[in-house]
Automatic annotation (TrEMBL):
Complex and partners: Homodecamer.
Record EC number: 5.3.3.4
Family: Belongs to the muconolactone Delta-isomerase family.
Keywords: Aromatic hydrocarbons catabolism, Isomerase
Top EC class for this record: isomerase
Involved pathway(s): Aromatic compound metabolism; beta-ketoadipate pathway; 5-oxo-4,5-dihydro-2-furylacetate from catechol: step 3/3
Protein name: Muconolactone Delta-isomerase
GO terms for biological process, alphabetical: beta-ketoadipate pathway
Keyword Metal-binding set for record: no
Positions of the Muconolactone isomerase domain: 1-89
Length: 94
């Protein structure tokens, strides 16, 4: 199942910069592992914003929730999820 996901990152004021750098490094490692597994199929920066648009390909809503809620930056992100269904005019099967 495909999901369009928007993540807006809101680092708390006053967070220790070293801690936040560590969380960002952990987030990057996790994101790249999920990309290699084929679960995080697109990851795009929204130009001019500390936010991304992503597409996930996972087996269920629960699987997506497990991934998103265990991301290192999850406590500092506002996340919106849109489940995607096939469009009848789409040629692509993916
Ligand atoms: O910087 C972001 O958009 C948050 C994020 C998600 C995956 C990643 O590596 O950073």
């Amino acid at each position: 199942m495909l999901y369009h996901v928007r993540m807006d990152v809101h680092p708390p004021h006053g967070i220790d910069p070293a801690l936040f750098d560590r969380l960002k490094a952990e987030e990057k490692a996790r994101a790249q592992a999920l990309q290699r597994e084929g679960k995080w199929v697109h990851l795009w920066r929204i130009a001019g914003q500390y936010a991304n648009i992503s597409v996930f390909d996972v087996e269920s809503h629960d699987a997506l929730h497990d991934i998103l809620s265990t991301l290192p930056l999850f406590p500092f992100m506002e996340i919106s999820v849109t489940p995607l269904a096939r469009h009848p005019s789409a040629i692509s099967t993916k």
